[in-house]
């Protein structure tokens, strides 16, 4: 035990790993979703390139 803190090193290590996971997992999720969205968009733009584009005129 660490004097004055009352936590064992394994508890501190577990809490640090949990904190790291809470920070890293959302970032990895965002990267994955961004990558999948880019794949979806590139497939969609390849399909729609042959279609004529009509400008949207607004008054």
What does this entry look like structurally?
There is one protein chain. The chain is an all-alpha fold and 59 residues long. It is rod-shaped and about 70 Å long. It starts with 8 loop residues before the first helix and ends in an 11-residue tail after the last helix.
What series of H and E elements makes up the topology? H
Let me know the average pLDDT. 81
In DSSP terms (H or I, runs of 4 or more residues), the helix count works out at 1
Unreliable segments of 5+ consecutive residues: none
Structural class by helix and strand composition? mainly alpha
Radius of gyration: 25 Å
End-to-end separation in angstroms reads 74 Å
Count the beta strands.
0
Q: Rough shape?
A: rod-shaped
Q: What level of helicity do the residues show?
A: 55-70%
Largest sheet: none
Kindly estimate the percentage of residues that lie in beta strands according to DSSP: under 5%
A few lines on this structure:
With 59 residues, the chain is mainly alpha-helical.
Blueprint of the fold:
Elements: H1 9-48
Main attributes of the structure:
single chain; mainly alpha; 1 helix; 68% helix; rod-shaped
């Amino acid at each position: 035990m660490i004097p004055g803190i009352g936590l064992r090193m394994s508890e501190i290590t577990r809490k640090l790993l949990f904190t790291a996971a809470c920070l890293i997992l959302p970032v990895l999720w965002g990267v994955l979703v961004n990558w999948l969205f880019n794949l979806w968009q590139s497939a969609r733009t390849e399909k729609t390139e042959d279609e004529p584009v009509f400008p949207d005129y607004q008054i």
